[in-house]
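Good morning,

Attaching, inline, the backbone tokens for the sequence recovery test we're adding to the shared suite. The designed sequence is right after.
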């Protein structure tokens, strides 16, 4: 097998570029990790070599181009998610727009004239994110609406007199409201419908209405045009989620991304009719951001795939070709996963990605790792993963399932794990184990499981509900007990998470049944647990109490902590440390 440490180092050193954003002068900003964490880079207007514009140890979270040139970006401190906003002029150093290290500033949108930004902030109360507007030149800021719970500000009205406020009390419920800046009453833009999503609004310049993504009376997100308070006029409704939407500068075309079994598909549509006007060819992978050039002749997007990290590409509506702006080609010797389906305990076919190492299987079959995504309302995607590619190279198969509750396969599928049905998704992991064990090239006695965040809870639930199945478990910052999670998670998250998992008071009995810590005496397999110490989502106590309990019972457990990481390992040196630890752990307990 390939030297795992050497391969991992090569893959971790392969640079990624993501989240592109054009400015009005034609310069293209994006985030790049050349120095170990994502920082702002710029391709100058008219072309030329990309240049770094920021240099921090902590990763930049986003960048947005300004109409007059330059950009706004945000970053937190050591992963604590208390994002602060900065103005980056066309030349020179960035200056802070906010300086409140205990406050979360959620990015919103830039005003049509480029003079103001809209953002959310929980300065009034940590549990509530109010709507704010700031003048960029002076830094003068004012709250334009006090709001209960977490919200977003995805757009401005085209006349610049109001901002759009998006609510999302539940995963599959969101509404849009118009908030005047003069203090007038807010109005609901989306007809009252408690069981639908209304997302990604893009106003027509005349203010008559807006394009948006919605799933009102539908199983999938589609593209529609909506007049305020009216019914959606559906323009494009494939049997798959339309996930991204951006209108061209002249508003004649709409760029959309469709999720086809996890793979992104970029298309250009006629803005009036929804007819497909172009479908540029691009590598198979995942797109997370679209941005139009100010002249409307091209669109920049990022794209990552199984064998290549995220890069920035350009597409033109009048061409079927795409061009790499800043991208690393597919890496030699790396795997594409096969799309498969396996049967569940109740007869459903569950989608997954699957790969086995190259060559002939060893006697007894390949050991396999099952990797579980977080969320739960998320989807495992055909994305770049240095760790999973390294596992394959060292002789481990990898199965990446999208068990019930995953998005991307329709609302009905995503709702199959809600509340009292939560353990049905854990049973799906047992079904994955059964499917793997039945394959002659797989060693059914050497199947491990790994996940992060909610996927970490899935790992802990799997090794307590089905302890006889798993040879090893890897839990990155997973929830061990729901009671302690709700007591310590960021207060701005409690309401939304309670709507998904269950109310910590009214559903206390259910949540105790769903808490792996209460059944940790069942765990038989060795465990590796890793945790960022500034994590505001799943606080360190979740990992600490599980690791301590396993130690007290004599279960082999390794517990790794990272003082300068939050909910995820964003710095290259920290990823190197944790992935090498996982490699050594899996080599010992799966390969033996």
């Amino acid at each position: 097998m390939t030297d795992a440490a050497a391969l991992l180092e090569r893959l971790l050193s392969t640079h990624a570029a993501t989240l592109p954003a054009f400015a009005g002068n034609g310069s293209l900003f994006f985030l790049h990790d050349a120095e170990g964490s994502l920082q702002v880079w710029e391709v100058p207007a008219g072309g030329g070599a990309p240049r770094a514009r920021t240099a921090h140890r902590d990763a930049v979270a986003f960048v947005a181009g300004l109409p007059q040139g330059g950009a706004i970006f945000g970053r937190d401190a050591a992963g604590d998610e208390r994002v602060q906003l900065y103005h980056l002029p066309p030349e020179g150093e960035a200056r802070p727009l906010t300086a409140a290290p205990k406050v979360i500033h959620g990015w919103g949108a830039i005003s049509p004239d480029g003079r103001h930004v809209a953002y959310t902030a929980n300065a009034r109360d940590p549990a509530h994110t109010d709507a704010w507007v700031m003048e960029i030149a002076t830094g003068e800021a004012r709250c334009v609406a006090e709001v209960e719970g977490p919200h977003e500000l995805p757009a401005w009205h085209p006349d610049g007199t109001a901002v759009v406020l998006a609510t999302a009390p539940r995963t599959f419920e969101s509404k849009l409201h118009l908030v005047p800046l003069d203090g007038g009453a807010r109005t609901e833009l989306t007809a009252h419908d408690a069981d639908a999503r209304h997302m990604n609004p893009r106003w027509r310049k005349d203010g008559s209405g807006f394009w948006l993504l919605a799933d009102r009376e539908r199983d999938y997100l589609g593209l529609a045009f909506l007049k305020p308070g009216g019914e959606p006029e559906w323009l494009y409704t494939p049997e798959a989620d339309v996930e991204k939407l951006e209108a061209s500068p002249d508003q004649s075309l709409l760029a959309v991304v469709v999720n086809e079994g996890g793979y992104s598909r970029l298309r250009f549509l006629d803005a009036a009719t929804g007819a497909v006007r172009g479908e540029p060819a691009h590598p198979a992978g995942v797109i997370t951001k679209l941005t139009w050039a100010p002249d409307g002749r091209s669109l920049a997007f990022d794209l990552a795939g199984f064998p290549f990290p995220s890069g920035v590409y350009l597409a033109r509506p009048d061409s079927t070709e795409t061009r790499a702006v800043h991208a690393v080609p597919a890496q030699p010797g790396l795997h594409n996963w096969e799309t498969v389906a396996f049967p569940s305990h109740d007869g459903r076919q569950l989608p997954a990605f699957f790969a086995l190492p190259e060559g002939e299987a060893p006697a007894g079959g390949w050991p396999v790792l099952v990797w579980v995504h977080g969320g739960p309302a998320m989807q495992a995607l055909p994305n770049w993963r240095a760790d999973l590619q390294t596992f394959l190279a060292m002789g481990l198969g990898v199965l990446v399932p999208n068990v019930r509750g995953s998005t991307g396969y329709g609302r009905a599928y995503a709702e199959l794990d809600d509340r009292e049905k939560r353990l049905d998704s854990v049973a799906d992991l047992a079904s994955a184990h059964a499917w793997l064990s039945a394959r002659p090239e797989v060693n059914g006695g050497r199947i491990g499981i790994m996940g992060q965040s909610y996927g970490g809870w899935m790992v802990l639930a799997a090794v307590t509900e089905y302890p006889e199945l798993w040879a090893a478990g890897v839990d990155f910052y997973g929830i061990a007990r729901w009671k302690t999670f709700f007591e310590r998670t960021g207060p701005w998250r409690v309401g939304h998470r309670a709507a998904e998992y269950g109310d910590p008071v009214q559903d206390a009995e259910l949540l105790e049944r769903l808490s792996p810590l209460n059944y940790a005496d069942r765990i038989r397999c060795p465990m590796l647990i890793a945790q960022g110490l500034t994590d505001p989502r799943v606080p360190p106590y979740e990992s600490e109490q599980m690791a301590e309990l396993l130690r007290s019972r004599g279960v082999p457990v390794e517990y790794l902590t990272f003082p300068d990481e939050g909910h995820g390992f964003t710095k290259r040196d920290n990823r190197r440390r944790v992935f090498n630890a996982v490699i050594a752990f899996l080599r010992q307990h799966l390969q033996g």
